[in-house]
Design goal:
By secondary structure, this protein is an alpha+beta fold. It has 3 helices and 5 strands, in the order E-E-H-E-H-E-E-H. A 5-stranded mixed β-sheet has the order 1-3-2-4-5, with helices on both faces. The longest helix is centred in the middle third of the chain and has 12 residues, at 29-40.
Length: 93
């Protein structure tokens, strides 16, 4: 069973309706920063804990080619790590 945390944007999304998927681990500081960024900008996202979910871990590696987290998928655009400028550009915010 995968652990999913879905955040819904209230009153519209600052990201123009784009949704993000974030692959995380419980102890990842940059993962927490990325999730806070999404919350601050009302970005809907799904979170997958790759420390416990092997299927999602494989999916993450297939997309990014590595095991480092966070890996962020914004409608097919893959971002490895918390790069605020790149994330904002991909979201159009």
């Amino acid at each position: 069973m995968d652990q999913t945390d879905t955040m819904s944007a209230k009153g519209g999304s600052a990201s123009g309706g784009k949704k993000a998927i974030i692959y995380t681990t419980p102890t990842c500081h940059y993962c927490k920063m990325a999730k806070e960024f999404f919350k601050e900008h009302n970005v809907a996202y799904e979170e997958y804990d790759v420390a416990t979910d092997q299927t999602r871990r494989k999916e993450m590696v297939d997309k990014s080619g590595q095991l480092g987290v966070p890996v962020i998928d914004i409608e097919g655009s893959i971002i490895v790590g918390f790069d605020e400028d790149t994330i904002a550009k991909e979201l159009g915010i």
